[in-house]
Design a protein that fits this description.
This protein is mostly helical and about 475 residues long. Among the domains are: about 210 residues, 3-Layer(aba) Sandwich (Rossmann fold), CATH 3.40.50.620; about 60 residues, no CATH class. Helix content is about 50%, strand content about 5%. The protein has 25 helices and 7 strands. The protein has a 5-stranded parallel β-sheet, sandwiched between helices. A two-stranded antiparallel sheet has the order 1-2. α9 packs antiparallel against α12. It is globular and about 60 Å long.
Length: about 475
């Protein structure tokens, strides 16, 4: 048995055979990362979050044992004021316990609800100005730096900010290499930059990750909650044919205002809740992936679908509702596979310790027990958390549309990365793998560069996969 905390530690061992796991490739294209139950290198296993493995000399390698799990099947009882006070208590305690440090301490501040909450609770407890840092973008539609600045002024923090520009593409090889496996969350670039900025003045930084998963803060949670209400009114035998037909006829309109983009919702309603939500959280769906694969790759995969693991996870979740099951699956797959991997790797790359107060297990257990109406209400996610922070944080911070921490990759692939988009289809490790229909890859690149469609996320996925192939094999 060879073990290490990162894949690169195993790759240094001469006895490790380097062969890609093609099912992991399908998982990666489905979700943008390789989940815990799979590894990009065949024969390598990951120890899942919340598990331990006991090795005994002379005995076969056992399966990992789970020692903790989140349970969405219980419901807390109490009035809204009581539950609100309890939530605020858990958040305060979680932040306070992670402020204990004998080295300089600070926080990431995006200007969103979660990081602003962490900074507010730090400022409430600290006798000195909290050190905060944020990253902005030179694309106005993606830039939240003004919101971060307002929160910094409100709580009199020692604030520093920096702007990410297309020039930051130059560091992509170094950043991507930190992840070992292919990793397609393009926000790894600004996350790396904010970690660099933080490390200039602190050794430990508190982050706001986890509240979206625990308290249903993503837009997809709100949509799924609404869709589940429709599913409860109409049987699958009726929904499947009716909504499936409507979804097939409805035009795909990425350019249209969000209320008019009904195609994905109609197609989702034609499926079970688990199938619909899995598609919503995915990056490249099953049909799109199969249109990319070569005949030999489709044959090698057989009937394998990366989505099936998540669907099974939702169906077996300790949950009372579809929203519970969706949040549980996010906790088990998305959070450790994407969000926490991104923060861990980028912070450790600059010797910064990132701490996650909103993932305190007591806070998570309490949040999972909240009635659905305390999580989603009136088209808003994180309803109780936002209510608890009213007065402390301004309403236009609490209730503005969620932007997310993303990079302007669509613009980059039409500008400084246009040559990379073309190269994906020819001359790359990806093209030589035999996994893909290179003519189809060329079509995708040219359609994006010309502006006929937005294929930026797929191009980024393919580019990161190409880099991982080059590094490992």
């Amino acid at each position: 048995v060879i073990f290490a905390s990162e894949l690169k530690g195993l790759l240094a061992h001469p006895a490790l055979r380097r062969a890609p796991d093609i099912q992991a490739v399908d998982d990666y294209l489905a979700f943008g990362y390789v989940p815990d139950h799979r590894c990009f290198v065949s024969g390598v296993k990951k120890l899942p979050a919340g598990h331990y493995l006991m090795l005994e000399r002379g005995k076969p390698l056992p399966e990992p044992v789970r020692y903790w799990d989140v349970d969405f099947s219980r419901r807390a009882k109490g009035s809204v004021p009581d539950l609100q006070a309890e939530l605020l208590h858990h958040m305060r305690e979680a932040v306070a316990s992670r402020m204990v440090a004998d080295v300089p301490l600070g926080a990431f501040l995006s200007g969103g609800v979660d990081s602003s909450t962490v900074v507010a609770l730090m400022a409430e407890r600290s006798t000195q100005a909290v050190k905060t840092c944020s990253i902005g973008f030179d694309v106005a539609a993606l830039d939240e730096s003004d919101y971060a600045r307002r929160i910094a002024e409100r709580f009199a923090t020692d604030h520093r900010s920096r702007t990410v520009s297309p020039d930051d593409i130059a560091i992509i090889d170094a950043v991507a290499a930190q992840f070992d496996e292919p990793f397609a969350d393009a926000s790894m670039l600004p996350t790396f930059r904010v970690c660099q900025l933080a490390r200039e003045s602190v050794t430990v930084a508190l982050s706001g990750d986890g509240a979206d998963e625990a308290l249903a803060g993503y837009r997809r949670h709100v949509f799924h909650h609404g869709e589940e209400r429709v599913r409860s009114l109409l049987p699958q035998g009726l929904r499947g044919p009716v909504f499936g037909a409507l979804g097939a006829l409805y035009p795909k309109a990425d350019w249209a205002p969000r209320p008019l983009r009904a195609k994905s919702t109609l197609l989702s309603l034609a499926r079970t809740g688990a199938e619909g939500y899995t598609d919503a959280v995915g990056v490249t769906n099953h049909a799109a992936r199969h249109s990319l694969y070569s005949d030999s790759q489709r044959a090698a995969l057989g009937g394998y679908r990366g989505e099936d693991h998540m669907i099974a996870l939702m169906q077996a979740a300790p949950a009372r509702s579809g929203l519970d099951a969706a949040q549980y699956a996010d906790m088990k797959l998305w959070l450790p596979g994407d969000i926490l991997t991104k923060v861990d790797r980028t912070s450790m790359a600059v010797s910064l310790e990132a701490r996650e107060p909103l993932l305190d297990y007591r806070l998570i257990e309490f949040s999972a027990s909240l009635p659905e109406a305390m999580r989603v209400r009136g088209g808003q996610g994180k309803w109780l958390m936002k209510r608890a922070m009213r007065g402390t944080l301004p309403d236009d911070i609490l209730y503005r549309p969620k932007m997310g921490f993303v990079s302007p990759i669509a613009q980059w692939f039409r500008g400084p990365l246009a040559d990379q988009a073309h190269r994906i289809a020819s001359g790359s490790a990806l093209a030589r793998s035999g996994w893909f229909n290179t003519a189809r890859l060329t079509e995708i690149a040219e359609a994006h560069i010309s502006g006929r469609s937005d294929n930026a996320r797929l191009l980024w996925q393919l580019w990161m996969l190409d880099k991982a192939l080059d590094r490992i094999f």
